[in-house]
Design brief:
The longest helix has 44 residues, at 513-556. The chain is globular, with a radius of gyration of 29 Å. The protein has 14 helices and 22 strands. With 703 residues, it is of the alpha/beta class. The protein starts with a helix and ends in a 17-residue tail after the last strand. Helix 2 (35-49) runs parallel beside helix 3, helix 10 packs across helix 13 (513-556) and helix 13 (513-556) packs antiparallel against helix 14. Helices cover 30% and strands 15% of the residues. It has an eight-stranded mixed sheet, covered by helices on one side. It has a seven-stranded mixed sheet with strand order 3-7-8-11-12-14-13, with no helix packed on it. It has a three-stranded parallel sheet with strand order 17-18-19.
């Protein structure tokens, strides 16, 4: 750090960047249970050691949407240990914090709270693992935000239009516009970008004086036609994009020649899958920003469990393995044991001199047994390494390449086939399986009233979010909508006409994707509200049972004191649960004086409540004379990413003229749509030995 210490002055921002920490991953595993907590402590320790201005997290701080008490407790313990203290904060916030943190009950940055003593602020967006869910749309980061330990930003509740308002930061003469966008389903966000419904707001004055930093958590690599976010969708005035969600570490900023910005992909801080991307050494980044210049310094994580991976193709060793040999399986097993032992030796040599690293490494040997070979017993093989590796149950992974028949009927050339493990293939989602099933099913089991898209989304919600009433509420909602349609058309109560109109209405809905998305959202809102009501009713009914039991017991014996105590507890608990649903008065505004500026902030709370309507059959709908209006529709989407192994670290960015953009350093903004056309910026590169904060750039490059 001695080389970087000379760069520390009153005009330089020092930002620690990390993504995808996944606290709580395999927390019940006796060997790997504490890996995420140890690495998180190392990250915060590096922030304290380097005296950074703030920590920037790119989503997925937690692995589970509903983290356990152990995970929450360990996270709070680490944040309180490393992020609280008397060290002064040297930067100020110029933007309207009531807008930046509008979904928080305390809409101001935590270090300006007079009741807290924050030495290292943490700014974080949410990821797809810890995204807001439930009737109140809360996530684990909202708990940390309410506790004053994390500043949760980049949240958008609208599914029709997204306006990204930056947090404007200033330290000396350096100004940073920090943009953030929490995880949104990739297909939905892709569609919103295409329809130009994503707008990034910018200050109206001194537009070229701001360093624009954008944090996003989406798919960067292409997983489908719209299941990712192309880099070209992002605005070209951005200087640096910190991309979360992708776990392969590519933290060195890579230029995007088309948009003239740089992309840094820090990757995950812990191994969550035994894949090639996770085998890359884990790093976090120390970003220095001065004016429009930046430098990314990579910091290797020392507490990450070592992971070694190797592929073996048995067909490539004809001199060792003959499929016709009756003892070929024993030979393959001995060969695999030799490979595993070599990887263990490499892991031991790498761990020497580093006592903080876990002793047992992760080992993965992928064996392609195409060509008539047979796999041996994995469980028996794993027993030999229980005390040596952290993942004994899945050391070996057998797979076969897809064998394609030659069109001319000639012999198949296995050497021309592409090796593709099952684990590396495209993962089918639940809604895709539902859609495929109904598309290929017989006519008698096809859906005639519901749509495959809506049913697939409901099943996905049931599987991912455990919304047990999702499918039932979707069926009710679509049935009610069809009934209203038939009543408005005044169809005679003839079965043939009804069936025909229902089919027409269903086909119309299938073509309107936005209306389908709106139906799913409405049904999910109903399901969450229904779940909340059921919880209250169950607690109330259980309390009534306790009261009845108490009454009967007291009737049998006057001296039965426990019955009386049980009844009293039942009443108290019932009232307490009922009170949870009531809204409480929230602090409207406040002034916090620990920072350099004081902000007046207003809180904004959102409540989602929907009451399920009573369901009727289609024929019963004709008995009712009243009609109900249709509900408006909206839309949904998703995400993606791209990788580069370029190791550029020292980067300078010079400002350039823009077209029709004016800014101010306060809460006044101008809207700028995605993919707008502007004059390109000049870009220059420096070697690692050069000081990134000296001579200004002179070269320019026009698009």
């Amino acid at each position: 750090m001695s080389a970087l210490s000379s760069q520390d002055d009153e005009d330089t921002f020092k930002i620690l960047i990390a993504t995808d920490i996944h606290l709580g991953y395999l927390e019940k595993d006796p060997v790997r249970g504490n890996d995420t907590f140890v690495t998180f402590n190392e990250i915060l320790e590096q922030a304290q050691k380097n005296e950074v201005d703030f920590v920037l997290l790119g989503g997925d701080l937690f692995h589970d949407n509903k983290p356990s008490r152990k995970t929450i407790h360990s996270c709070l313990e680490s944040l309180r240990k490393y992020c609280m203290g008397d060290r002064p904060i040297h930067f100020e916030i110029l933007s309207d914090q009531a807008v930046n943190f509008q979904y928080s009950k305390f809409p101001w940055v935590n270090y300006q709270d007079g009741n807290l003593n924050i030495s290292i602020p943490i700014f974080s967006i949410h990821g797809n693992h810890d995204d807001p869910t439930g009737a109140d749309a809360l996530c684990a980061l909202d708990i940390l935000s309410c506790a004053g330990l994390v500043n949760h930003f980049g949240r958008s509740a609208s599914v029709e239009k997204i306006d990204i308002s930056p947090i404007l930061l200033r330290k000396g003469g350096t100004k940073i516009a920090l943009y953030g966008l929490g995880a949104i389903p990739d297909e939905r966000l892709y569609r919103m970008f295409v329809n130009k419904q994503v707008t990034m707001l910018r200050p109206k004055e001194d537009e070229d004086s701001w360093f624009n930093l954008f944090v996003i958590h989406q798919n960067r690599s292409k997983h489908g036609a719209t299941n990712y976010i192309p880099e070209q969708f992002l605005d070209d005035f951005i200087n640096l994009v910190v991309w979360g969600h992708e776990h392969e570490c590519k933290i060195a900023p890579v230029p995007n020649e088309q948009q003239n910005f740089y992309v840094s992909q820090p990757g995950s801080a812990v191994v969550t899958s035994l894949s090639p991307g996770e085998a890359v050494k884990k790093h976090i980044g120390l970003l220095h920003v001065k004016g429009k210049k930046m430098k990314m310094h990579k910091i290797a994580l020392e507490t990450v469990r070592t992971f070694y991976m190797e592929d073996v193709v048995l067909a490539d060793h004809p001199d060792l393995f003959n499929p016709d040999n009756p003892k070929v399986t024993q030979a393959i097993q001995a060969f695999c044991m030799e490979k595993v032992e070599m990887m263990l030796d490499n892991a031991e040599r790498e761990r020497l001199g580093n006592p903080r690293q876990p002793e047992k490494p992760l080992i993965r040997l992928r064996v392609d047994y195409t060509g008539g070979f047979e796999p041996f017993s994995i469980f028996r093989f794993s027993q030999k390494y229980v005390d040596k590796v952290a993942n004994p149950k899945d050391i070996i992974h057998f797979f076969r390449r897809r064998e394609q028949k030659a069109k001319n009927g000639s012999n198949i050339n296995f050497g021309d086939l592409v090796s593709r493990p099952v684990s590396d293939g495209m993962t089918l989602r639940v809604e895709d399986l539902v859609k495929q099933y109904f598309q290929t099913a017989e006519k008698k089991v096809q859906l005639s009233l519901l749509t495959e898209r809506g049913m697939g989304e409901a099943v996905q919600e049931f599987v991912d979010k455990e919304e047990k009433d999702a499918i039932e509420e979707l069926v009710k909602f679509q049935l009610e909508k069809t009934q209203r349609f038939l009543k408005e058309r005044h169809i005679d109560a003839v079965e043939e006409k009804i069936d025909e109109e229902v089919r027409k209405f269903r086909e119309c809905r299938r073509k309107n994707a936005e209306e389908e998305d709106e139906e799913v959202r409405e049904a999910m809102t109903r399901a969450r509200a229904h779940r909340s009501e059921d919880a209250v009713l169950v607690s109330a009914s259980s309390d009534e049972e306790l009261m009845d039991t108490g009454a009967k017991a007291s009737g049998d014996s006057d001296d039965d004191l426990p019955a009386t105590v049980t009844r009293g507890r039942g009443r108290g608990r019932g009232r307490a649960r009922g009170a949870r649903g009531q809204n409480s008065t929230v602090r409207g505004s406040s002034r916090r004086g620990r920072g350099n500026t004081s902000q007046e902030s207003a809180t904004s709370s959102r409540t989602y409540k929907s009451v399920p309507a009573k369901n009727k059959s289609i024929m019963d709908a004709f008995k009712s004379l009243k009609t109900e209006p249709f509900q408006n529709s909206s839309k949904s989407f998703s995400e993606d990413i791209i990788d580069d192994d370029s190791d550029l670290e020292d980067i300078r960015i010079t400002p350039s003229s823009k077209v029709n953009q004016r800014f101010s350093t306060t809460s006044s903004f101008s809207k700028r749509g995605s993919q707008s056309q502007t004059t390109s910026r000049g870009v220059d590169f420096e070697s690692d030995e050069d000081d990134p904060f000296q001579s200004a750039m002179t070269s320019r490059r026009n698009r």
